[in-house]
Write a structure and sequence with these properties.
Helices cover 56% and strands 18% of the residues. The chain has 487 residues and is an alpha+beta fold. It has three domains: 7-173, PAS domain (Beta-Lactamase); 258-328, Helix Hairpins (Orthogonal Bundle), CATH 1.10.287; 336-482, Histidine kinase-like ATPase, C-terminal domain (Heat Shock Protein 90), CATH 3.30.565.10. Helix 1 runs antiparallel to helix 5. Bound molecules: adenosine-5'-triphosphate and magnesium ion.
Length: 487
Amino acid sequence: MALNITLRTRLALWVIFLLTVQVVLVLFVIQRQEVIAIEQEQTERGLVLANSIIQENTPLLVRYDYFALKENIEARIDDQLIYIIFYDRFNMPAAGNDFILTYDDIYQFSNLGEDLKSREPFVQPRQLLDADHNPLMNVLEIEAPIFPQDATDRWGSVKLGLSLEEMQAEVRRTSMLLLGIGVLGLLIGIIGAAWLARRITTPILKLVEGTEHISRGDFSLQIDIDSQDEIGNLAKSFNEMSRQLQLLQRRMEEANKRLIQVEKLASIGHISAGIAHEIRNPLTAVKLNIQKLSEKENLDESDRVNLEISQEGIAQIEKFIRELLNYARVSELNLDWFAMDQIIDGSLKMIADSLELKDVTVEKHYGADLPQVRVDADKVRQIILNVLRNSCEAVETGGEIKICVERTDTPSGSWLRTEISDNGKGVPRKDWENVFEPFYTTKASGIGLGLAIARKILEQHSGTIRVKSQEGTGSCFEILLPCEDEP
Ligand SMILES: Nc1ncnc2c1ncn2[C@@H]1O[C@H](COP(=O)(O)OP(=O)(O)OP(=O)(O)O)[C@@H](O)[C@H]1O
Ligand SMILES: [Mg+2]
């Protein structure tokens, strides 16, 4: 979350800062230009006014009719035109309105220089003070030379004082308007910056979240960003990387499991070889001696029963050793082309007694035109026997076993699928993988090697076996063997 605040806020602040600088600069330039334009307009207006006053009053000035001049001047004065002063050819004041007579520094002195031929007007802003020396108003002072018709030298000049109050009010109005526009622009900019910062940082935060998941070893998270920019590309690469990591993790787990299985196998093989060596010879001697004893005729009934129990025990031990060695032995496969239905029929014959004893019905569904499979028939028979035997043990008396064989084509290739299902007690979901572990058994006299051997043999054939079962409704074992093209 620290990154969230920092990155988003930093980005937003930078955008706002740059925007503010830009808005202030733009407004400043606009305002300056506006002021210059207004000033220019005012100056031009003043010059036009000065010219018109000159046109009107030059004859009076030339005739030295200062009385009429004064009257004309007073008539011209209004809110905008604060003062008018006429100067004679010696730059001495000839006439001015009453108001300006009190401002000696303005009234007494002409602003035009000695050069009598110059037609350049004089323009300057000026501040008028009241009697207490407080600012009264700002004026634009314009003084234009007077050249009567055909005259080459200046005859005099006229000085005007134009009020700047209205102009300044206009400048203030324009400034306020610009300020309003600036504030509004800034507000929109701030909202935009916050939105932009959010838009940019949200995908980054999602990526950060993704990397956090990966660092915790969880590769399942897929980032949901579908923008078409660099961030979108990054998200796509990230998702691809997660997928690859997930795949790699799964493969590693499988490899690990296989490694454990191989190690288990190796140690079982080692132990079983030892057991076989240590037990077999003495067991054979025990078995022979019990055999001899049981053949004696003068044995009473209880001894005979005891000897029979001992013989059953020995048979059990022998079976255990046999199974153990069978599981541990990695023998070469004797591959040839066989029909699966024949192998199954052969296996069914071998356990016919057990099936009959429990009154189990067997239903067979063999698909048409079943392909032959290249397998070690003895070993595959052993798989079918182990699975059938389990089903027979799982069902109640009068139970049912169903066998289906068919060819199935999947993206991973063609398979011969054999399904053996029963209506026995079923395998709980949590034990679906456990049942294939060596020595996993829920039976009192079971060894727990039947399905482990089945899986081992199928792996040798590049096939698989898995359980599909529901507790209470029975189980279904699916055996897949690869279908190769027959020669
Ligand atoms: N058809 C089935 N229905 C219900 N449970 C089954 C079925 N097949 C196997 N199981 C369960 O799987 C366990 C392992 O079976 P597996 O054949 O490997 O060993 P086992 O039958 O116990 O002993 P054995 O080595 O003598 O075969 C069984 O103990 C049983 O709990
Ligand atoms: Mg079994």
